[in-house]
Amino acid sequence: MEKNQSVFMQYVEIPVPSLKKGEVLIKVEAASINPADCRIQKGLLRPFVPKFPFIPVTDVAGEIIEIGSAVQQFKVGDKVVSKLIFWKAGGLAEYVAASESITVPLPAGVSSADAAGLPVAGLTALQAVKAIGTKFDGTGVGSNILITAASGGIGSYAVQLAKLGNHNVTATCGARNLELVADIGADEALDYKTPEGAALKNSSGKKYDYIVNTTNGGKWSAFKPSLSSHGRVVDVAPNFGNFVASILTLFSKKKLSTVILSLGMEDLRFLLELVKERKLKTVIDSRHPFEKAADAWEKSLSSHATGKVIVEM
User: Fold this and answer.
1) CB neighbour list of residue 140: distance below 8 Å, 6 or more residues apart
2) Per the database record, which ranges form the Enoyl reductase (ER) domain (predicted)?
3) Could you read off the pLDDT of 24-68 as tens digits, one per residue?
């Protein structure tokens, strides 16, 4: 039965998912929307995925209310976080079935909303920061790095993780978010609309050993002059031009490499532990009740969210 409708989204009643033997049934408490979810709606991934109608969103946290016959790690009543398979998704719903293999325990003291922000954005940020050699055990030597779009979902996690790795962090964002980005750890925050910000110039004038690019509008031609002699761009949102640059710079001193999310559940556990220890936080742009999920979707589509957009059931 239809409850509400927007241009692209409508509420319907469907059966509670049935479980396969290796799955758990999660009563969703919070879900976070990612830019990739919106790309599905825009049809940018067709004809490969998905088959419409489609229930979007991959990042969920909630309580297990049923387990499959082969499930060993969880029991009914456990609080968990799951990173659902992208082409199946299903997280923007009251209940979702998730494989045991893509689900991890939610530590005590970590809210469902904070946890739901982590799977895609947090893991992508972690992979990017690991790609520049970051160590979190105190043994790493910090580098001079730049993080673009630092007030976004991925960027806000990347700034915090980079500081945990002892890097000197310059970050770009809009003027309204300069204070927030400094508060989460950036040594210097640049308004990307100013001449200095557009040129990626920090106050010291130093070139960057690494640039972590989290915006699909970043260009290799703009990054290259800001790199040190053997500097590298790590791009988590590559456009076509940067894909080409990643090939053309393979044998150059200055390089661009792309990152495609591949980290697993052990890394998600690591991030959750950091949140539990208050070393990492989820920057939440807004929280929306399930009945107003269309508003959350529109906010995410706007590309102007500060941190994560959360839907709470």
Assistant:
1) 133, 134, 165, 166
2) 6-311
3) 999 999 999 998 887 776 665 566 666 777 899 999 999 999 999
> To the nearest whole percent, how much of the chain has pLDDT over 70?
94
Instruction: Kindly calculate the radius of gyration of the chain based on its CA atoms and give it in whole angstroms.
Output: 20
Assigned superfamily of 121-258: NAD(P)-binding Rossmann-like Domain (3.40.50.720)
Per-residue pLDDT averaged across 17-29, rounded? 97
What are the residue ranges spanned by the domains of the chain? 23-106+283-312, 121-258
C-alpha 188/C-alpha 147 separation (Å) is: 10
User: In this model, does residue 258 exceed pLDDT 60?
Assistant: yes
CB neighbours of residue 156 within 10 Å: 35
Instruction: Look at the domain 23-106+283-312 and name its fold.
Output: Quinone Oxidoreductase; Chain A, domain 1 (3.90.180)
In terms of Cα–Cα distance, which of 152, 153, 154, 148 is closest to 170?
148
Question: What are residue 271's phi and psi, to 5 degrees?
Answer: -65, -40
